[in-house]
Amino acid sequence: MPLKLPFILLSLTCLFGFSNTLIAQQNNTSLQFSISFRADKAPPTVDGRMMIFLADNNKTEPRFQIKDDHDTQLMWGADVENHPAAQAFVLNASNSFGYPVIDLSQVPEGEYFVQALFHRYETFQRADGHMVKLPMDRGEGQNFKIAPGNWYSQPQKIRISHSQTGVVNLSLSEENPALAQPTDTKYIKHIQIKSERLSQFWGRPIYLGAHVLLPEGFDEHPDVKYPLAIFHGHFPDDFGGFSTEPPAPDMDTSDYSERFGIYGYKKIMAQEAYNFYKTWTSKDFPRFLIIEIQHATQFYDDSYAVNSANLGPYGDAIVYELIPHIEKQFRGIGQGWARFMYGGSTGGWEALAAQIFYPDEFNGCFAACPDPIDFRAYTVVDIYKDKNAYYYESDFKKTLRPGKRNYLGQLACTLQDMNYRELAQGTKSRSGDQWDIWQAVYSPVGADGYPKPIWDKLTGEIDKEVANYWRENYDLRYILERDWATLGPKLQGKIHLYCGDMDNYYLNNAVYLMEDFLRKTTNPPYNGLVDYGDRAEHCWNGDHTQPNYISRLRYHTMYVNKILERLEKTAPAGTNTQSWRY
Predict the structure, then answer these.
(1) pTM to 2 decimals?
(2) How distant is the alpha carbon of residue 569 from its chain centre?
(3) pLDDT digit string (tens) for 450-467?
(4) Angstrom distance (rounded) from CA 322 to CA 320
(5) Which of these, 442, 211, 240, lies nearest to 349 by C-alpha position?
(6) Does residue 524 have a cis peptide bond before it, meaning omega lies within 30 degrees of 0?
(7) Bridge pairing between strands 32-36 and 167-171
C-alpha cells in the first residue's frame, strides 16, 4: 500500500438545504467515515458490504457514478460481519479497498460529494454443508445501487485537505423502496414458480420467473400448440422491446447515448418496440411463444442457465421445471425439436451452453457476441498458459492487459481496472458483477464455501488447478472437441454464432478459436454458421444491413426464417407444422 498521508476535513454541507456542520477533529492518521445505522430499521447485528462514494460533481448521486471508463468517480468498500447495529461502523484506509484509488489515504485534495451505502447480506445454509453470507436478490436483478432494503445516506459535500485529520459522520437514513411488479396484458404474461431443486440446494425457497409473449390469436385458437423461443439475457424486469403504442410524435429526443454517439435513442427504441408489435401481429408472421427468464442469483442478475457448484442446479431447474411449466400453461408443443434459443453477450453464452449441455432438449441456438466460449481467449487471457491475468509476461516491463475498447481500438480501461472495481464492491465473488459471476459459475467451491478464485483479485496470479476445473466443466469449445463423437450427431445444424470483429470486450477472440474447431475438425460436420460484423462492436447479432444500435433491438425477428427452416426440416414425421401458421 502507498504511504498514508494526514487529512483535514474543513466542512460538511448537505445537498438538500441543511446548514454547514463542522467536523470534529480526531487524532486519526487518515480520512475515516463513521456510518450509523437506523435503530428502527436494523436487526441487532448486520452483515454486508459498506461502501463510500466520492464524486467531484453532483450531476447525480455518487453511488451512480462508478464505472470502468475514464470518467469514473471514487469508491471504497469494507466487509461488515456480525456488527452491532447500535454501533457506528468506521470505514478507513486499513479496512477498505478502493477504486480507482485503492488506498483511502491517497484521495486527492478537493471538494467532494460523499454518500454511504450498505449492501445487506443474508445467511444461507446450503445443502453442500457450507454456510455463506450473500445478498439475496430482491427483484432488482442483483443491483446493489437500487436493491430494495439497502440503506444509504443523503449525499453531502465535504472538503479534503492534506494538512490535518478528521472523521466524516454519515447516517444511513434512507432505504431503497420495493420495486413495482409488472402487470399482465393481452400479449404479455408473467409467471413465477418455486424450484424444488434450487430450494433444496439453498436451504430456503428459491423461485424462477418468466415473462411470456403470447402469439396473436392465442385465445381464438385454443387447440393450437406452439413452438417455443427462449430469449436469454440479463435480468428482465418485464418483456422488453414490445409496445402496442407508438412513441409520441413530440417525444423528447434530447437524450444522448454515449455508447452509440447519437441523440434521441429512447425514441428510436420506442419506435422499434412498436414496429415489433406490428410485425408480431401481422398476417404472415409465424405464431410461437417467446419467453424471457428471471433467474437472478445471490451472485449476479442471472445464473448463466447451467448447473454450478456455487449457484446450484439452475440448468436442470430451467430445463426440467420452468420450461415444462410454461409449455403446459401456455400450450407449448413441449418437445425438444420445437424449442429454440437466442441471445447476446451473457445470453449468447447461455444459449450455446444450454444447447451443448442439453442437446436433445433444444433444436437450435443463435448466439451473438457470446461471453468467452474458449478459455484460451478468456477475453485477452489464456488461463491455461498465462501466469498473470493483469499483465503480459515480461522480464523487465509490466504492460497491463486491455479490458474494454471501442471500434477504433481505443482503450477505455484495463482488465485490472474492471477487477479492482469489483473488489471494491465485494469480496468472495460478491460484487454482483461480470468477472465475479464467471468465477462463481465456473469455479469449484473453496474451503470457505465461496467460489475458489481463478486468479488472485489483487495480483492477477492465475490458479492453474482452478483453470483445469474450468476447462473440464465450462470451456465450451474444449467440451465440444472432447465430446464431439457423441455431441456432434446431436448438434448438427443447431449452432449459429455471430460476433463483431471489434467487440468491446474482445469476445471475438474466443469465437475465432471456436470457428477453427467447428469448420476444420468436426466429423460429422456441424452444419451451422459463424459470422462476423466488420468493425462491429458489442453486441452484433448477424445483421449486415443495419447499424448495431438498431440490430440489437431486433433479436426477436432476426432468426425467424432460420427457425422456420429448421422446424420444417426436423419435425417428426406426420407432424402438422402449419397449425400455428394461421
Answers:
(1) 0.93
(2) 35
(3) 999 999 999 999 999 999
(4) 6
(5) 442
(6) yes
(7) parallel
CA 369 to each of CA 292, 503, 513, 546: distance values in angstroms, whole numbers, following the listed order: 18, 7, 14, 16
Using CA atoms, how far apart are residues 272 and 263, in angstroms rounded to an integer? Answer: 16
pLDDT greater than 70 at residue 9:
no
At residue 164, the pLDDT reads 65
Residues 110, 160 contacting (CB under 8 angstroms): yes
Which residues are CB-contacts of 573 (< 8 A; sequence separation ≥ 6)?
none
- Interval 415-431: pLDDT, tens: 999 999 999 999 999 99
pLDDT in tens, 213-270: 999 999 999 999 999 999 999 999 999 999 999 999 999 999 999 888 899 999 999 9
Give the per-residue pLDDT at 41: 84
DSSP label at residue 388: B
Contact 264, 247 (CB under 8 A): no
Single-letter residue type at 137: D
Q: Cα dist. 32→25, 56, 93 in Å? A: 11, 18, 7
CB 103 within 8 A of CB 127: no
Mean per-residue pLDDT for 72-78?
Answer: 98
The one-letter code for the residue type at 61 is E
Single-letter code of the amino acid located at 216: E
Kindly report the number of other CB atoms within 10 A of residue 496's CB atom. Answer: 23
- Grouping H, G, I as helix, E, B as strand and the rest as coil, residue 368 is strand
What is the torsional sign of CA 494, 499, 501, 505? negative
Residue the block writes with cell 465473488: 429
Domain ranges of the chain: 8-175, 188-374+475-570, 380-472
What does 21-63 look like in DSSP terms, one character per residue?
Answer: BPPPP---SS-EEEEEPPTTTS-SEEEEEEEEEEES--SS-GG
Alpha helices in 281-345 (DSSP H): 314-317, 323-329
Whether the ω angle into residue 525 lies within 30 degrees of 0, i.e. cis, is no
Identify the H or E element spanning 132.
Answer: strand 131-134
pLDDT at 378: 98
Write the DSSP string, 190-248: EEEEE-HHHHHHHTS--EEEEEEEPPTTTTT-TT--B-EEEEE-SPPSS--S--SSPPP
Element (H, E) at 354: helix 346-357
Q: Is the alpha carbon torsion for 55, 58, 62, 65 positive or negative?
A: negative
Determine the Cα angle at 460 with ends 98 and 508, to 5°. 105
CATH class of 188-374+475-570: alpha beta
In the block, residue with C-alpha cell 451505502: 117
Separation between Cα atoms, residue 565 and residue 100, nearest integer Å: 51
**Residues 58/60/65/69 CA torsion (nearest 10 deg):** -90
